Structures are given as structure tokens and as C-alpha cells.
Amino acid sequence: MNICVFLSAADLDERYTVPAREFAELLGKGGHTLVWGGSDVGLMKVVADEVQEAGGRLVGVSVDFLATKARPGADEMVFAKDLAERKALMLAKSDAVVVMVGGTGTLDEATEILELKKHGKHTKPVVLLNAAGFYDGLKEQFRRMEAEGFLPLPLTDLVFFAEDGVSALAYLEESAGIR
Asked: Which sign does the torsion angle of CA 48, 90, 10, 110 carry?
């Protein structure tokens, strides 16, 4: 399975790197492919290192203005002209999506992927890896949106909140009929 992961390129502490490594190791050992932003820095590097070390493939989708940060040695590296094209390519190359911790770019990616799913533009499973409760506030906001009628489908059909890498990958594999 090709699993798109949206995540930070920042250097982060163990609260975030441990669950990311755990998920990445399981992804690689499971024979899956990581589709990610292609950067060889921060949490992106941590995840790519772990996937590659565990035997998984790496498909990077970078942007021209970040070419100097692209990971050498990826199995495949594509360069998009801008961030919008990058998101579209990452989604097109994947069977499922995981959103890890990140800043405004990651939040933008997550909301666009969820908006596309809400409108039926894709049916891929989407997981928010809620490491150290990072997405607790967003989870609460989504629950409010659902309760007040802002979501045209049940929240559980839109996104799965995973508290760790094991439950994240288990959900994706079950959704794909692998488990």
C-alpha cells in the first residue's frame, strides 16, 4: 500500500518522534511505500530514515523551491511546481493518508484532503496520528462541527484519530482489506 504522510520538516522532541518512528517502522516492515514531502530534514527525515531502514520504499514529492532539501537516495523523487500541485500528486500516488504533527503547511494539507473526501473526490482512509494529544483541539472542533450539522457525513467516515502508530497502521490495513 502507498501511504501518504503529511508532517513537519521541523526538528521535534521525543513526544512526536517516537510515535512517528513507530509508525514508520511498521510501514516499512509491512512492505508499504511512504509517499511524503521528500525533504531530508526534521521529522520528515526521521520518518523516511525509519521506513527505509525497515525495508519500505520512499516516494518523495517535493517542490522546486525546496529542491536543496530533497532526500538523496529516495526510490522515486518528483518535483512539483508549487504546493498545490504537490498535494495533488501526493494524493494521486497514495492509497491512504496519515497526518502527523506539523505546522500551518500540515494543517493546510490535512484540511484540503478532508475537504476533498467530504465532497467525494476520493475515498481513501485518512488518519490523524494524535501524538501526545497534538490534535485534541482539532478533534474537539470536528466533533462540534458534526454535532452542529457542518459535516455532511459522520466524522468517523471522514477521519480516524489514532493515538499511536500501531492503531494508525492497523486501521489503514483493515480499511484496505489487508487484515
From this structure: negative
Non-local (6+) Cβ contacts of 157 within 8 A are none
pLDDT number for residue 68: 93
* Rounded-to-integer distance, Cα 5 and Cα 98, Å: 5
| Residue recorded with cell 504537490 | 86
> Is the whole-model pTM more than 0.85?
yes
* Residue 176 pLDDT level (bands cut at 50, 70, 90): confident
β-partners of residue 79 are 62
How many percent of the chain have pLDDT more than 70?
99
* Nearest by Cα to 106 from 52, 179, 170, 39: 39
36: enclosing H helix or E strand: strand 33-36
Mean pLDDT of the chain: 95
Tell me which residue of 3, 88, 80 sits closest to 39, measured CA to CA: 80
Q: 164 Cβ partners below 8 Å, 6+ apart?
A: 19, 22, 23, 129, 131
Other Cβ atoms closer than 10 A to 99: 28
pLDDT digits (tens, 9 = 90+) for 38-77: 999 999 999 999 999 999 999 999 999 999 999 999 999 9
Can you tell me the distance from the alpha carbon of 39 to that of 63, in angstroms, rounded to the nearest whole number? 10
